[in-house]
User: What shape does this take?
Amino acid sequence: MKLSLWRSPRVAVGMQQQQAGYPRVVGYYPGTGVYGGYVAGVDPSGGPVMAAVHPQMHAMLSHSPPVHPLAVHPPPHPAVHSPPWRPMMAPGSPPLGEGHVPMPLNPETFGGTWGNTTGGGAPVGTTITFSARPQKPFKCSRLLIRPTKSGPTAIGNLVGQMFIGTDLQQGEVGNLDLESLGAANAFDTWVSFKQCEPGVWMRVLATLTAFPTTTDFETYTVTAIGHYLH
Assistant: This one.
């Protein structure tokens, strides 16, 4: 053992501890009530290491009775960590996270189709409900509505109202232009709906401004995009 780099006769350190740039942590000297010494790494033999005294402590230590340095035992081996994108509370148990996911709103009747009644489409004046019931908390931020129109009389647009549970998600009662709001190329049409709790229905009650006749038809798909806790 050699004398400390701080040349304190009371404290001895190992050779490895004197190497420049060696990791240090704040230590403590019993009997002085002062924190501020340094522990310079781990002894390769695996035994406890001694702390080297900072120069500012020399004056204090010179007026105090001799003390023995506090032995610091080596730290445990470092734990194996998951990558940053895969945190774990325990193996196979990730913490609560948040995703941004799509959720389909499925038509409850007529397959989301108006017209061509002989083929199973909805007749004139029908309101079709598109609904979804998330399994985890979901907060809608965007609607995507895609029409498929066939025939010269399929000229109507989708209008309606939106609900989370029984709560209307618009500023006033009345039919909105859902087709324009949910167009894929629409600009600045994000929304901030009330959070839909697990088991609560999200519904869009929809109809057309004009109904196709004969075998013409209009079919719609409705998708909500939002924040999802998982």
User: Anything to note?
Assistant: The helical segments are 58-62, 178-181. Residues 2-46 have pLDDT under 50 and may be disordered. Residues 2-62 form one domain.
